[in-house]
Every structure is written in structure tokens, then in C-alpha cells.
Amino acid sequence: MAEAHQAVGFQFTVRPDGVDVKLSQEVIKNIYLSGVTAWKKRAIQFKNGVLAGVYPASPSSWLIVVIAMMSTLYIRIDPSLGMIDAIKENLPQRDYMSVQTRAVLSAILFATGLWLFLIFLLRYTLKALLSYHGWIFESHGRMSTSTKVWLTLVKMFSGRRPLLYSFQASLPRLPVPSVDDTIHRYLESVRPLLDNEKFNQMEILANDFRDSKAARLQRYLVLKSWWATNYVSDWWEEYIYLRSRGPIMVNSNFYVMDLLYITPTHRQAARAGNVVHAMLQYRRKLERGEHAPLRALGTVPMCSTQMERIFNTTRIPGIETGRQRQGTHKYTHTQESYLLPWARARIQYFTQGVNKASLDAIESAAFFLTLDDEPQGYDSAKSNSLDSYAKSLLHGKCYDRWFDKSFTLISYPNGKMGVNAEHSWADAPIVGHMWEYVLATDCFHLGYTEEGHCKGDVNKGLPFPNRLQWQLPEECQEVIEASYLSAKQIADDVDFHGYLFNEFGKGLIKKCRTSPDAFIQLALQLAQFRDQRVFCLTYESSMTRMFRDGRTETVRSCTSEAVAFVRAMEDPGATNAQRLALFRKAADKHQNMYRLAMTGSGIDRHLFCLYIVSKYLGVDSPFLKQVLSEPWKLSTSQTPQQQLNLVDINKFPKYVGAGGGFGPVADDGYGVSYIIIGENLITFHISSKFSSPDTDSYRFGQHIQSAMLDIQELFKPINDKKTVELANHVQLENGKKHI
């Protein structure tokens, strides 16, 4: 127990002649070292706070400005246009200062004010530059002169060696789209999914909303966008995640897998030790802001706010209302989850005594580590190894993961690892960034001995682990058993299929002069139609982190252009030239929608926030109700590779991650996550529910494979150049008709 270990360090005995106090030198030494470490950390954080606060300038630039201003005193030039003299005359206690002192102090004050003004000027100039998004709409490899000039200016105003949070104050705010644009794009997105009668009804609802209620709701959103750093993110976190009434296991949490082909050591304890060590190194750099900020094109910065809550974060259950509190442990954030049995049990059984102490230890911890007893991982000899691995990471045995923690690190007896992450605090790319660093550090920096043990000497001064104490009365155990049975029913219903597509990858797709993401999304549309024989509302997640506090936006991938392409693929009378032309048109449409979503012109977050405002104001909107109730039967997401510099996969082709996935969003739909690995591999993570008679994850994987191969066939040189020439001609004619 913790009390027993603490008693060893400090002992005292009461005697008739006084109190005999014995202090453990080892404990005192560790207390001293802990204090030194804490003060060093505070000093570094203060220094980094100053550096980020004055970025893109530097503290040394202040000294340069002061020296330059002081030098003007001796050459009798006043660049301040009389302001230094005005400051000199209005200094407090000026009668007690010499003329020389007043002159020097006034020059310093003016120089400091000028320096601060220049910082704000640089910062807002950079913000204005970052508000330009024309570069993202240009064709790949065809950068315009204006974009080249813009990139040069961004680099110039970005300063040198930025820290993780240096750009935060310069990131633009997420703009509020116009209601007309949003409604137009919404109606365009549902047109291929509705027959004429239903579409006309939806059009009437949309137009009525636009003409009657939208203007009032929009004004409140615009006001919020001026006042808050982001008009979406706080409501998104609260209402989509923290006010959700369902269990977060399977329904919200997601997972990330280990390296696909490599297991650095088969010793569970050694691998867990190295990975934990790498994670704490990552946290140390995170606290110091030493990670390089993620930048598109190596220049355009992304928001880093979500990274603040990777460690020491726990989601706390509540009954009715949401709240966030700062825990006693540094960097601990606690948030609301509305799984009522856990919320009520927590209040009744875990708010006092040893239960509270043990729960506080878990909730204030950096992360949760679980040591599993069944091996997992990819095995090419087993057809369902990724299926089992995914289900283990997503839900385990239902009682061996702490789903409320920001993430649970999972260690298997064969040396494999994985992560289960809670979703409310951040999105998958944030966890992915940490995991990329950890895997690279584990394999290429920490390493293992020939016997598979960790390298380095044993630190005998580390404290022993403490067993957490629990007192669970019978009625509490009954609640736990009921919750377990409910969780097991959810877990057993998850139908997972992991699929490695290695026929081709990003390399071949780029040779086809199309976007890899658009290629895969159109393959998913073709697979969906072949699987269900109908089209459905499709969710693809995109990021909005080019804006301050940005999170995600939805790309509605089932477009009219995609539907036309799929129908042509299923039409035996269509030629490959016609199919290829329709594919290119659908791919271009998808890319444009993705770019609009990234630049703040998406549909769904705007409609979501309009709905929240309507609920606050008590405004009834049949249109918004209909929009927010539409099911996403196909939910998709791409896992990005963000730090390609960590591992050279051309030199180490086996050191590639397998990505991650999530549970099905709809009871009768599919969840699909995919990662494009290198030039020749794409991994798909497919989820559905066994309870749905219409879905089958393995079957859908087979449809994806055939769809990918069928689309590839369109780009093969059939009859030499005739197919390509005809496709270009058809596309040109379509373009003329559009114009």
C-alpha cells in the first residue's frame, strides 16, 4: 500500500526525553531531485511561453530595437517624432531622476512599445497571409506565380525555428459560410439520394428555412465567430461527444495498431517498457513545446491546440450537464460522459475512501497501460488476424481497457502493442502523431539487446508500484456485472475485417494523375453500391486545423458525379473511355469538395451550429431537424502519415504502421478507415454489426478489392492511346457543356 511505502521514508519515535526523528537520505535526495526537476520544467515552460508569446519576433530583437533607439540619443535624431520627449515629460517620479536617466528610460519605453507594435504587425500580417487558401485549389504540380510569391511571404513572416505553439496566435479564425451557399451545397449533396418527390419536399423545407429563420440564427453564429476562437469546436465537443448518451466503447473510441510486419522484441515487459519510455519522452518534448509544428507544404501551419490534452486527461461521467475541471495533477482535464450507470455508480461508490483514492490515481495518470494475456497482431498465415487484433484494440474483453482515459496503451504477450483512444478531447491525427514518434523512437533510438531486453542500466532508485485498493459492496458489484453484460453485447456485435490491399498503391494512382483519396473514395462508392444496390449518405472526415482550434468537417462523398460514374461501371453498354471520363469528373468534384471543407466552406458543421442556436432560441426548424437526423450508412476516414522524416520506408520497407479504425456509425451501415502506406500498400479497416442482416464486413472488403482493380483497369492502355484520347475528348465536351 502507498501508506506503507511512505512510512519507510519518514519515521519518528516518541521518547521520554523528546522525539527522535529519522530521515531517509534516499527519500530526501529524491525529494530534492524532484523539486529541481519541477523548477527546471517551470523555467523551460516560462521561457517557451515567452518565445511563443513574442513570435515571430524573438527576445533578442527587443535588445536590438532598444540599442538602435538608444544610439539615436547620441546622434540627436528623434525617430519617435516627439513621442520620446512626451514620455519623458509624463514619467512618474520624474523630479527624482536626472535628465540623462529620464532620456534613457523614455527611449527604452518607446523602443519596447515599438517592438510590441512590430510584433503585432508581423503577427497580423502572417494571419492575413494564412487566410489565403487559393493555393489549395490549384492543380497538383502546377503552382501559380501568385502562390509562389505568397509562399515566399509566409516563409519570410514565419520566422526561424518555431516551437509547437508559435503559430497559434497567427492562425485565422474559422469563417462562417453564407446560408445560401450552405443550403445550395446541401441540396446538391442529397439530390442523388432522393427521388423527385422527396427532393422537392426537401427543397421546400430548405427554402422556407432560408427565407424565414436562417438570418436570425446566422447573426448569432457570426457574433460567436468574432468573439470565440472557433465558432464550431466547443459545441462540437460538448454536444457530439460529451452530451452523447450512449456507451463510448465501440460507439466513440477508436484504435491505432502497431507496426504491421515488424515486432522489435517478443518480450512483453521489454516492449512495454520501451514504448512507455518513448511516450514520456514525447510528453517531455510536448510540455516544452519542442515538437515541430505540423505544416502543409512544409510552410502552412496547423493548429496544435488538441495536443495539449494527450496526457493526464480523463473523461468524467455526469448525470445531466457537462463540465470541465482542472484536476490536482498537472495537465489533468476532466470531461463529461453520459453513460448513466457509470455516472451514478461513480457518485455512489467512488467518491470517498480508498475507492476515491484509487480512482484519482487512475484519472490523474498520464495514460493507462494494460497488459493483455492473449497474443495479437498481423499474421500472414492467418486470414482473420487483423480482425481479431482490431476487435481486441477496440473493445478487448470489455473490462480490461479504461475507455475514459485519453488513451489506453495495450501490450500483448508476443510483444505487439496498440492504442485505444477516447475521442472527445482530440481527433485521430493527434494520436497518430504521438504514435508515429513513439514507434520510431522505440525501434531506431531505444532499441533492444540481442536477447530482446531493454538497453541501458537498471535504475534501482525507482519506487515500487502500488496496488490500488478497492472496496466494492455487493450492490456495486451487481451494477458492474450489469454494465459488463451490456458492454459484452455491444462488443460481440462488432463485425470487423482488416484487409491489406497490395495490388498497387499511391505510386500507381499518382501516375494516373488523380488524387489517391479521391480514387479510394470512388472505389468505396462502387463497393457500397455493389454491396447494397443503393447509394447512401456518405461521411468522409476532413480536417480544419488550418484555423485556430479547428477540428473536422464532413465531405459528403456520394455526389451526383460519383453516382454517374458508378452507374457507368455497372452498365455493360458503357465504354471504358466513357467510364474514365466520368471517373475524372467525379474525382475532380470530390477534390473540390474536400478543399472546400478544409478551408471552412463545408456544409455540416455550419448546419450543426445553426441547429444548436435554434435550440437555444427555442426556434423550431423542420429543415434542421431533418438534416441532423439523417443517418450516415457509410462513414469513412483516412489515417494520415504526418512525420515521414522519422522513418525512411524506402530503406526500411517493413517498418510501416497498420493505421487504425473505429466502430460502425449506423446499425445497418459500414465504418471504413484506410491508410495509404508508402507507394504500394493500402490497409482497410472495415466495421459493421453482426445484428444487421444487410451488412458483412468481409464481403464489403471483397467489394473494395474488386472496385479498386476495376478502376485500375480504366487506366490501362487499351488500344494504345485511343482510350485516353477519347476520354480526354469526352471530358472536354462535358466541360464545354458545363460552361
Automatic annotation (TrEMBL):
GO terms for molecular function: carnitine O-palmitoyltransferase activity. Gene3D superfamilies: 6.10.250.1760, Chloramphenicol acetyltransferase-like domain, Choline/Carnitine o-acyltransferase, domain 2. Pathway: Lipid metabolism; fatty acid beta-oxidation. The keyword Isomerase does not apply. PROSITE patterns: ACYLTRANSF_C_1 (PS00439), ACYLTRANSF_C_2 (PS00440). InterPro entries: Carn_acyl_trans, CAT-like_dom_sf, Cho/carn_acyl_trans, Cho/carn_acyl_trans_2, CPT_N. Catalyzes the transfer of the acyl group of long-chain fatty acid-CoA conjugates onto carnitine, an essential step for the mitochondrial uptake of long-chain fatty acids and their subsequent beta-oxidation in the mitochondrion. This is Carnitine O-palmitoyltransferase 1, muscle isoform. It comes from Sphaeramia orbicularis.
